[in-house]
Amino acid sequence: MSGLVPGQVTQLVPGVWRLLALNPGMMTGPGTNTYLLQAGDGLMVLDPGPADSQHVANIRAAAAEIGLPLQAVLVTHTHRDHSPAAEALVEALQLRRLGPEAPADGFQDEAWAPDQILQDGDVVALGNEQRLRVIATPGHVSNHLCYLHEDTGLLFSGDHLIQGSTVVIVPPAGSMRDYLASLEKLRSEHITRLAPGHGDLIEDPQAYIEHTIGHRLRREEKVIRALRLHPDSTANDLVGTVYDDVPVFLHGVATLSLMAHLLKLEEEGLAAQENERWALLAS
Ligand SMILES: [Zn+2]
């Protein structure tokens, strides 16, 4: 493993470093990756991570070790394992905040308030003719952004693509239909590697994107088969069949993504619900 150790700074390419937060877990894998990017004579913090004073101290120590001052905070999205450390950094160092606004679904960092709201196609200048291009990738959550480091082709993929597992999609802020469309959108980008929100660098991004699309579509096929066999079922009734390859202790979380699949089928006119009981529509 290349440096997935909390508190240890790892240089990925010239001008880009990674620092792991101290929040390993079922939903976060080894923990949240915070990235530090050189921008002119300072540093931007991309995904500062959870509200944890030790991680905030580690970010400041990392900047001291690199020898550049922290100047701005950038986030891929506002889930509570990605953005809340911004508050302590902004308070101590008056950093500028860049990123999306948070949707009001009860799962977001409510303290997040960007000084500059970023949208699809926006460019963040890093100095020396280097830049980050914003690619809106709704799906995991509606405000999700990826950032393409155009010079190196490194894509900061947040929770759109993470290493070693699939991401949970929680409706209504999460949408399976948007998620798949956002994956399709990345297929035409020149990406050399993924720098995910959780886990190590991913070396063959287009194969990984392909694999992820295939995985989701195979899951959708299982949803359709399960509905065909068991019409008028709730998501809870279906989860054991659709996620029979996933350990039972994860079925609570899997039910959320299953709901995202069912809603996608509903949006596409392939399924309908009545009193939370789902059935396929005859085509
Ligand atoms: Zn997330």
Could you outline the blueprint of secondary structure elements for this entry?
Blueprint: E1 10-13, E2 16-20, E3 33-39, E4 42-46, H1 53-66, E5 70-74, H2 85-93, E6 96-99, E7 116-117, E8 123-127, E9 130-136, E10 145-149, E11 154-158, H3 176-186, E12 193-196, H4 205-229, H5 235-242, H6 251-267, E13 271-274, E14 277-280
The structure holds zinc ion.
Tell me which CATH architecture of the largest domain applies here: 4-Layer Sandwich
Secondary structure category: alpha/beta
Q: How many distinct helices?
A: 6
Cα radius of gyration in angstroms = 20 Å
Shape: elongated
Helicity level: 25-40%
Order of helices and strands: EEEEHEHEEEEEEHEHHHEE
Bound molecules: zinc ion
CATH topology of the largest domain: the name is Metallo-beta-lactamase, Chain A
CATH class of the largest domain: Alpha Beta
Percent range for β-strand residues: 15-25%
Largest sheet strand order: 1-2-3-4-5-6-7
Q: How would you describe this protein?
A:
Helix content is 30%, strand content 23%. The protein is an alpha/beta fold and 283 residues long. It has two domains: 10-203, Metallo-beta-lactamase, Chain A (4-Layer Sandwich), CATH 3.60.15.10; 219-280, Arc Repressor Mutant, subunit A, CATH 1.10.10.10. A seven-stranded mixed β-sheet has the order 1-2-3-4-5-6-7. It has a five-stranded mixed β-sheet with strand order 8-9-10-11-12, with no helix packed on it. α3 runs antiparallel to α4. The longest helix has 25 residues, at 205-229. It is elongated and about 60 Å long.
